[in-house]
From TrEMBL:
This is 3-dehydroquinate synthase. Belongs to the sugar phosphate cyclases superfamily. Dehydroquinate synthase family. Residues 69-178 form the 3-dehydroquinate synthase N-terminal domain. The keyword Membrane does not apply. It comes from Nocardioides aquaticus. Coiled coil: none annotated. PANTHER family: 3-DEHYDROQUINATE SYNTHASE, 3-DEHYDROQUINATE SYNTHASE, CHLOROPLASTIC. Binds 1 divalent metal cation per subunit. Can use either Co(2+) or Zn(2+). InterPro entries: Dehydroquinate_synthase, DHQ_synth_AroB, DHQ_synth_fam, DHQS/DOIS_N, DHQS_C.
Amino acid sequence: MSAPARTIAVRGASPYDVVVGRDVLDRVADLLGDGPTRVALLFAGELGEQAQALAERLVERYDVLALGLPDAEQAKTAAVAADCWEALGERGFTRSDAVVTLGGGATTDLGGFVAASWLRGVRVVHVPSTLLGMVDAAVGGKTGINTAAGKNLVGVFHEPAGVVCDLALLDTLPRADLVAGLGEVLKCGFIADPEILRLVETTDPADLTPTSPVLRELVERAIAVKVDVVVADLKETGGRADQPGHPGREALNYGHTLAHAIERAEGYALRHGDAVAVGCVFVAELARRTGAIDDALADRHRDVLARVGLPVGYAGADFEDLLAAMRVDKKARGSQLRFVVLGGLGRPQVLAGPDEADLRAAYDVVRGLQPTLVGPGDPRTDEDPQP
């Protein structure tokens, strides 16, 4: 028998709950409440069976409009958002109606943006179907779509009415996608909760499965890290009043500056969590070169990420191309690059305007590391789902 569901309260300006457990999809309607008449279920196209099961639950209380979305980052375009708006308009959605998303991070990003922009904002409940979505994209109210210039450059903050993390949805997730999600989990360990690192370092990676109590604890801990950060700095306005020197919500972008540049260089064909893993190694090398962290902490990045099968190296693009992409990162200020680095374990800080020679040297290290981030031909892609 599975453990009871846990509710993690997000107590900011717009309070909501994050429910974590197995077989908890019935909680979606509870979070939506009795206000909506119509609910748009925006789901990742490959999740048709799961979407139908969720729609059957929702139709008992609401008029349900199911809208399938393109796969992964292909969903995060202005054209897809416009198609969704047209569908809502044709169905007569009002400000009292709601959106439910079912899918990974791309689905929650796009669906949250549609909900935020329709009639200047309607309720949305996220049901993330991937580990990455559960620990990152679904929580915190960030929404966004991509443009030719870069990733997530268009978006707004729109907090959900609730999030339901049903761990049973991970049962059919390919192992490679579960491993990629651990990239965001381990990021939370480095910036805020070292117990996450200890759990991974002392657990056989083969035992990190959707039914594992350790994986559930990792999910809960990573969500708790994100909740703590976003409540203190919802709109990334800079810093935390309770922790001088802390970069606030910007800390959640640890490893993401290079990761987003890599994703753009590869046409968004890579797993986000894999790119984040490489990005974390890169900023650890940058922090090592600038004296912010010691060799042991820098090396720990490589060791723990590689332990679970995440890539720590990448050589698929020239440094100059990646540098140009990083200059349009949303953390940049004018012509100055900004990176979240560590000043010690659990102590994120901002490194502004690093020397280009240090950036190049850090990337040179990443280029020579194994295992290496690869594209759709990754042999993990065709592995069977979780046991």
